Amino acid sequence: xxxxxxxxxxxxxSLLSLVLACTGLDPNEVRPFSGLQGTITYxxxxxxxxxxxxxxxxxxxxxxxxxxxxxIITALILxxxxxxxxxxxxxxxxxxxxxxxxxxxxxxxxxxxxxQNGPNFQTDWIMLDVYSATGxxxxxxxxxxxxxxxxxxxxxxxxxxxxxxPFR
Amino acid sequence: MNKLATILAVVLLCIVxxxxxxxxxxxxxxxxxxxxxxxxxxxxxxxxxxxxxxxxITDAKGMFAIKGLPGGKITVVASFVGxxxxxxxxxxxxxxxxxxxxTIKSSSISKGEIVISANKRVQxxxxxxxxxSILTSADLDQRNVTRLDDALRYVSGISIARDQVxxxxxxxxxxxxxxxxxVLIDGFSLLSGDNGDVKFDVMPVADIxxxxxxxxxxxxxxxTGALGGVVSMITKEPTDSLAxxxxxxxxxxxxxxxxxxxxxxSMPWQxxxxxxxxxxxxxxxxxxxxxxxxxxxxxxxxxSQRGFGFGKVSWQPSDLVTLRVFGFATKEDRENFVYWxxxxxxxxxxxxxxxxxxxxxTKYAVGTEYNQILSGSxxxxxxYGFFRTLFENQIDGQKLDSNYSVAFAHNAEVQLTSRLAExxxxxxxxxxxxxxxxxxxxxTALQTIFSAYAQGEFTVGRFIFTGGLRxxxxxxxxxxxxxxxxxxxxxxxxxxxxxxMRASAGRGFRAPTIAERYANIRYGPFNVKPNxxxxxxxxxxxxxxAHFTAPQAFVPLDLDVAVFDNELYDLIEPTFALDxxxxxxxxxNLTRARILxxxxxxxxMLARSVSVETGFTYMLPRDLITGTxxxxxxxxxxxxxGSWKPLxxxxxxxxxxxxxxxxxxxxxxxxxxPDADARVPMHVVDLRAFYxxxxxxxxxxxxKNILSYAFTEVVGNLAPTRALLxxxxxx
Lengths: 168, 731
What we know:
The structure holds 2 protein chains of 2 kinds.
Chain A: H1 3-20, E1 35-42, E2 56-62, H2 70-77, E3 81-83, E4 94-100, E5 106-108, E6 110-116, E7 125-130, E8 143-145, E9 150-152, E10 155-157
Parallel strand pairs in A: 1-9, 1-10
Antiparallel strand pairs in A: 1-4, 2-3, 2-6, 5-8, 6-7
Chain B: H1 2-18, E1 27-35, E2 46-49, E3 55-57, E4 63-69, E5 72-79, E6 86-92, E7 97-104, E8 114-115, E9 123-124, E10 132-136, H2 137-142, H3 148-152, E11 158-161, E12 164-167, E13 181-185, E14 188-189, E15 208-215, H4 219-222, E16 229-235, E17 243-252, E18 269-281, E19 284-295, E20 304-318, E21 321-335, E22 357-375, E23 378-395, E24 398-421, E25 424-439, E26 443-460, E27 463-476, E28 482-496, E29 499-510, H5 514-518, E30 521-523, E31 526-528, E32 537-550, E33 557-576, E34 585-607, E35 610-623, E36 628-629, E37 636-647, E38 650-659, E39 682-692, E40 697-704, E41 712-714, E42 717-718, E43 723-730
Parallel strand pairs in B: 1-7, 13-16
Antiparallel strand pairs in B: 1-4, 2-3, 2-5, 5-6, 8-9, 10-15, 11-12, 13-14, 15-16, 17-18, 17-43, 18-19, 19-20, 20-21, 21-22, 22-23, 23-24, 24-25, 25-26, 26-27, 27-28, 28-29, 29-32, 30-31, 32-33, 33-34, 34-35, 35-36, 35-37, 37-38, 38-39, 39-40, 40-43, 41-42
């Protein structure tokens, strides 16, 4: 083997080794999870859901309780809120949810199940349940998410008895 | 306005000064070009007169004729792929014909490259003061290029994110709006009138002779859009013999590397075909091509079908006049995969996506060009063309009102090139562009850009100095007009026949597009709102480089090194307007950035049948406002290629592309794109094997991303996984 061919062989083997050592994107890769998980139970089951006014349902954890509807989108943009990445199923009896929280540890003072009840994403939101350690939804509880740990919070939504709304 | 008047006056002065006294008798040069070793005629080579636009392509017998030349000493330059460029001085008597025999020497390293786009005239690539990369039609054929943006992935210093071309980090990710690279076909702009984006799907692959990539700001000649550089495509010129070309390919995407990404049980296929016919008959030459593409895609809801055509007719009623008309059209119907559901479902769209929705696009363009040699040393080109684009979303064939846009981009230019004296070449021109848009999302709007430019090239001994200036006046609707002044400077020093040094600096700018100023659209859960107050973004590019060729060395090689600095001002980016009700997304002049870098390109023949080439670019992209790395930019771009011909009829090629992981993206994309931050370095290996049954028929087995490496080029979009293709070519 001449020197140039040997150099080419060496270059090829080096490149192949380099590439084979790299795995690329892997959906099975286990990342340490920090966040919120739990179950939402809807009182009355699927029959209790509003018929024509459900556009989106999410669990949202706010660092600071919103005062006006526009505070919701501002919190999302400023990343002072964590939320379930896609809408949760409609007309369900129970639903499980999972929210990954980045930059832990983080503290949230207002954790809710929220529903978009109109076409305007920025204003048409109501709270279906508010997390409270005492069980009184008018007194929201603070939640701390430690690094690498999961906090379990279950919600109970009663469409006929919604918690106090932050905007009204 | 006064500045524009000054520029116009300078240009007119150039035109007046160069168009006088050209009634002298002109002569004709005829000749015969052969291989220096075999004495065989060279067909399809370029023979040109140095410092002018005059030139010819050799026919099947190696013959050429160049008419309309002035008397006196001229330098004839012959170049061809795989040969060293050859120069020969001759003396031509006024009004007489002269014949010559010219030979050129084959070279394993030299590509015999010429470049047109750097200074809007034909010249040897080593005489250009800025970095230039060239892809030939052979490069396109071998890589099974189906869209021309695919070809650009194999050029050092370039990265592609969907249709966005980023030259040395000039562009990041901007929702496909506002290209920072000017893209041209035969000098005709291919940026759309509404989004100012590049429509790669209209370009006729079979008709492309070569692609020239000018790296660095180029607005001094090309105006708006040439912020990061210029991609110029030159179509093939017909010869006396009938040229027929056909290509067909078909093959599957293999199943993805993870079972949860398998969205169907069978392998999706892609197939396509191109045909081209061209010939010169007397004073008329024609070229026509057609192509079809069908792609089932490696992702659900990403199928596409596309048909396109190109035609060009040239008429040369006299030795000095050429009239050219060309047109192209494409129609595409595709599903509209915008981003993935999540990393676990990277080959599926979000659940809320209506799978019956289609994106339908229709584009066509018509252009004319009048070219007259006023004398052997002066020529004028006048051209006009328009480019119409239409996109609309449809459900079950019915147009959706919320996403529709039709745009016309009209372009006109008059250019004068003149050799005033030995070693002095002046190029000047006037241009006009009008973008007219009617759209559900942008409204109805008109944008006009008028400009004037002039450039001088001065050869002094072994030095070539270049200086140029362009003024552009941009006006959109009733907004205050904006004025841009774009100078450029360059120097080339031919230190030795095989060693050249260069230095250049130039300004680039990009006027805001109508889409960026007037977009009023819902994007995911957010509203995009208009911002008519946008200003142009601009850049200054500086470069120092050297080029060295050693065709006779123990290991023949060609080496190019460049160090560059791109200063970017007022970059337009989509951002959230926190001070407006509802926090909409608007386009805004936000970023001041600096990209320092170096680039090394090497081609070498390791053995008689083994060649390698590699291009390595290292950059430091900094956002000077935030003090962080510039978003969506790579630091390392590395491209390598090896070719081995174990037998005369067999060729095996391997290519490897690497980009380091993008360090920073806009985290807020994760608001509506799950796993938006999922990204890795890019490692792509392509393998190809070709067998030539004869000079006319070749079959190839092509493997793209042969290791099925999973990565993203755009946030929330898995790049194509492994594809295997069988390709048949007939010349």
